[in-house]
Amino acid sequence: METMSKKKTSDKLTVGTRIRTKTGVTAPEFPEVSCEGWTGRVNDLTGKKSDPKYVIEWDESIIESMPVAYVEQCEQKNLFYRMACFAGDELEITDD
User: pTM for this structure?
Assistant: First the structure.
């Protein structure tokens, strides 16, 4: 019997890849803020090659619909709300 090994989504994520956050994903710095289903592009990779983090730049439509409280929290902590960093298992590739 032949077995097929599935590649993890994170193995296919490169700069420019279109993504969507998976069910249950929250903002990294603000776990009370759901960003489930948000879309964007991989802008950069950081961390170890064996366990990279993906810097996501959100789509303009997502930025326009972000909760005002989230944007204000980011600005208070000098964080750039147009981007966030995630582990590969929190993201899925999309064509949207």
Answer: 0.84
| Residue whose pair of structure tokens reads 């993906």 in the numeric block | 54
Nearest alpha carbon to residue 28 among 50, 65, 62, 54: 54
Interstrand relation of 91-93 and 18-21 (parallel, antiparallel or unpaired): antiparallel
Instruction: Give the distance from CA 43 to its chain's centroid.
Output: 10
Query: Residues 9, 22: contact at Cβ < 8 Å?
Result: no
For 56-83, what is each residue's pLDDT tens digit? 999 999 999 999 999 999 999 999 999 9
Q: What is the DSSP letter of 22?
A: P
Cα 9 from Cα 16, distance rounded (Å): 14
Q: How far apart are CA 96 and CA 93, in angstroms?
A: 9
